[in-house]
């Protein structure tokens, strides 16, 4: 009996091992069959396990790549920057920027627009609609001036809360924007066109976010532009009254302020200087105290965790502003997809002191309270000063209207060298500007984007508690597109067609702004060409209208 039990045990053990091996073999076979089936399914356009199409698999692959590249993301089908001029209509421009982007995206995705086409909407007409609505519903529009025929100040969220406004958007050709603020409420053809206006949409939902990570994730998932509202502030510098600067009127004991103790200056007297909290190179920043001077609405279009601003802030959002093309950059540059050398061909920002080159840049006086007329100032050096300021030195040459610039810098001209007191770098642009030969315009089709670092957002939240981003679920009716005009004979699409244009994005295949020679002329090939209209390097040629840099800042909107 004992021997029989031992034999039985050995047999059962052998059978168990065999069964385990059989199960393992079966599992391996199943896995292999699954893999083969999946591969065959993908080749045939189907995945056996979840019946997804090949197009779905490509989307899934794209999502995987997207997750790997979470450090940056941008919205799709962004439209070019516009210029609000010296009017408090940033909320108006931000609202229509969102509507233009969703219209363009849905038009392309449904085959009603080409990938480059978009329709320009009228900010002026929308302002008229808001004025009329608020005049009839004063309780809905507290603390704004729309009831007195002014569009200075407003809210992007009105397009969601005040649903009648969703029937008031018209093409730009009906009522082009006027920079003069005295006729905010006038638009001759507006009301008659509303009767045959094909533009129609509804906003299903609005979501407002305050957390940086949630905002980034929302942008990455939906890739739509979003409304941006934040404080506009100033930053503060303390310039010590030492050296020759101590003898100026600014350092009079009745005017100077106590220097911060942490700066350890050899004097107690400092000049307190406040500057706007954004540079003339399109970057928002912070420095010491920040003071609120207003609020501003823009359009959030992207984020990039790896871009480093000139002030040393790493990572931030890219916003589409409404201050025109001046003192800004391309979206491609802020996404680290354009070399700085090529960027200077598109957005040279000539008036920004950050782009002045010692030994090359020549300045003239633009404010005779601080410098002299009929004098050319050649920048010789730019050195760091205290508290983030810089000291700029010049070779000063007297001249007159009778002299050419080349004559003035001849060896026969006498020069004197002088240096400024320590000042914030951008402050120099208030007093000087480059000579006309060295001023190049920014391209209005591509420039106009600003960089808003995460650190600055957090500081604004900490100090003022005034920052948020809103996303709107916009759905455009098919009748809004001229491609569907035949199905809507009672509507007038002429203004839609008149306001349809194309967006062009200049691209360079190389990091260097090198232009191939024509007819073997190597000298012209190496010549620096600023005008995009003449540049053969652009992959997409266009005849963009050039606009001069705007020398006046746009006021913030409260």
State the end-to-end distance.
100 Å
Number of helices: 14
Number of strands: 16
| Protein structure class | alpha+beta
Low-confidence stretches: 8-14, 26-58, 401-412, 519-558
Largest sheet: 9 strands, antiparallel
Q: Residue share in helices?
A: 25-40%
Shape summary:
elongated
Query: In oligomeric terms, what are we looking at?
Result: single chain
Order of helices and strands: HHEHEHHHEHEEEEEHHEEEHEHEEHEHEH
Structure in words:
The protein has helices at residues 2-43, 54-68, 90-109, 123-136, 158-161, 190-194, 212-222, 331-334, 340-346, 405-408, 428-431, 454-464, 494-498, 522-525; strands at 72-74, 117-119, 201-209, 226-240, 257-258, 269-276, 290-308, 314-320, 362-365, 375-384, 390-398, 416-419, 432-434, 449-453, 467-476, 500-502. It contains 14 helices and 16 strands. It has 558 residues and is an alpha+beta fold.
């Amino acid at each position: 009996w004992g021997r029989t039990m031992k034999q039985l045990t050995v047999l059962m053990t052998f059978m168990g091992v065999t069964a385990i091996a059989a199960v393992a073999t079966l599992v391996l076979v199943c896995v292999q069959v699954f893999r083969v089936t999946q591969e065959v399914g993908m080749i045939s356009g189907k995945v056996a396990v979840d019946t997804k199409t090949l197009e779905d698999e490509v989307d899934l692959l794209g999502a995987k790549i997207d997750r790997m590249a979470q450090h940056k993301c941008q919205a799709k089908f962004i439209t070019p920057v516009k210029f609000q001029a010296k009017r408090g209509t940033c909320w108006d421009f931000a609202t229509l920027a969102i509507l233009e982007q969703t219209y363009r995206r849905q038009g392309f995705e449904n085959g009603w627009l080409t990938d480059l086409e978009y329709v320009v909407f009228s900010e002026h007409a929308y302002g008229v609609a808001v004025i009329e609505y608020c005049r009839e519903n004063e309780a809905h529009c507290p603390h704004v001036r729309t009831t007195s025929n002014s569009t200075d100040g407003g809210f992007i969220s009105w397009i969601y809360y005040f649903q009648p406004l969703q029937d008031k958007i018209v093409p730009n050709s009906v009522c082009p924007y006027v920079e003069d603020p005295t006729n905010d409420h006038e638009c001759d053809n507006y009301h008659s066109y509303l009767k045959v206006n094909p533009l129609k949409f509804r906003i299903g939902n609005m979501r407002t976010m305050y957390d940086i990570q949630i905002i980034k994730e929302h942008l990455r998932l939906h890739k739509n532009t979003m409304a941006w509202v934040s404080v506009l502030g100033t930053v503060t510098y303390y310039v010590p009254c030492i050296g020759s600067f101590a003898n100026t009127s600014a350092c009079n004991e009745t005017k100077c302020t106590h220097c911060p103790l942490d700066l350890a200056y050899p004097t107690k007297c400092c000049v307190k200087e406040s500057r706007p909290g954004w540079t003339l190179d399109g970057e928002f920043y912070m420095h010491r105290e920040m003071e609120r001077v207003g609020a501003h609405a823009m359009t959030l279009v992207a984020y990039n965790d790896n871009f480093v601003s000139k002030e040393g802030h790493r990572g931030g959002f890219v916003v589409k502003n409404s201050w025109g093309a001046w003192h800004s950059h391309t979206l491609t540059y802020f996404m680290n997809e354009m070399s700085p050398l090529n960027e200077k061909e598109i957005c040279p920002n000539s008036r920004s002191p950050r782009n002045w080159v010692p030994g090359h840049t020549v300045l003239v006086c633009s404010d005779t309270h601080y410098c002299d007329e009929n004098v050319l100032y050649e920048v010789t050096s730019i050195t760091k000063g205290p508290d983030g300021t810089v000291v700029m030195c010049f070779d000063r040459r007297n001249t007159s209207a009778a002299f050419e610039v080349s004559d003035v810098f001849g060896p026969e001209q006498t020069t004197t060298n002088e240096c400024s007191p320590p000042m914030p770098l951008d402050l120099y642009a208030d007093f000087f500007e480059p000579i006309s030969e060295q001023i190049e315009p920014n391209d209005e089709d591509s420039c106009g984007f600003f960089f808003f670092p995460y650190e600055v957002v957090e500081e604004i939240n900490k100090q003022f508690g005034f920052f948020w981003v809103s996303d709107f679920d916009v759905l455009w009716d098919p009748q809004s597109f001229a491609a569907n005009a035949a199905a809507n004979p009672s509507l007038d699409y002429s203004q839609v067609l008149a306001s349809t244009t194309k967006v062009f994005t200049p691209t360079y295949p190389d990091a260097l702004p090198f232009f191939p020679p024509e007819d073997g002329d190597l000298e012209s090939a190496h010549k620096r060409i600023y005008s995009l209209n003449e540049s053969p390097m652009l992959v997409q040629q266009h005849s963009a209208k050039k606009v001069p840099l705007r020398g006046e800042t746009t006021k913030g909107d409260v």
